[in-house]
Amino acid sequence: MLSEDSFQYALENTQVLRAPQQRIQTFGQTTFRFFLVTELMDSVHQVRVRDGRFYAERPQIVTPAGFQQTLAEGFGERAEEFMEWLKRFGGDLAVLRYGFQLRKTLISEQVVHSRMEDVVARLEERVDRAEDPLSAIIQGVDEGWEVCLLKFAIDLIQSSAPGNADDFRRRGLF
């Protein structure tokens, strides 16, 4: 288990070197491919490359009534009162809910004996040749690599949400 400092270090040292060219699809599942590069600790010019996919489920609209069903479980009386208030006065309040699946079985990894810059340059060439608009290259830390992927997913949600909300609005759903 990561310490709080290691967790924070992983968040602060996650850098998207190449973002996907497309956002999360509004009305279907989106499959992203990622290459996560991390330097091995206490090793010179050794870089671990993780190659994998994660799946973004289609965003769902959650209204105040939906909040009450999904968020109030296990909370006390005050939370229930707030949910009732939200239903009465929330008006058109709605949020988008995103879901991701990261299947570790689809992640492969290899250690490359080269400088980080050279490894990244080769990955960029590979992504360019593949012409895959859903590929990303992420640089992170080895010990907290899963945190790096989750940070990337959150950033992807934040960049996709405005366009997804516009799509829902155009169809009169939001």
- Element order: H for helix, E for strand: HEEEEHHEEEHEH
Number of H/I helices? 5
The separation of the N and C termini measures: 40 Å
Largest sheet: 6 strands, mixed
Instruction: Please state roughly what percent of the residues sit in beta strands, choosing from under 5%, 5-15%, 15-25%, 25-35%, 35-45% or over 45%.
Output: 25-35%
Q: How would you explain this protein's 3D organization?
A:
The chain has 174 residues and is of the alpha+beta class. The chain folds into two domains: 4-59 and 99-170, no CATH class; 61-97, no CATH class. 41% of the residues lie in helices and 27% in strands. The chain contains five helices and eight strands; from the N terminus they run αββββααβββαβα. It has helices at 4-12, 64-71, 77-89, 116-130, 145-170, and strands at 15-18, 30-39, 46-56, 60-62, 95-97, 100-102, 108-113, 135-141. Strands 1, 2, 3, 6, 7 and 8 form a six-stranded mixed beta sheet that branches. The longest helix is centred in the C-terminal third of the chain and has 26 residues, at 145-170.
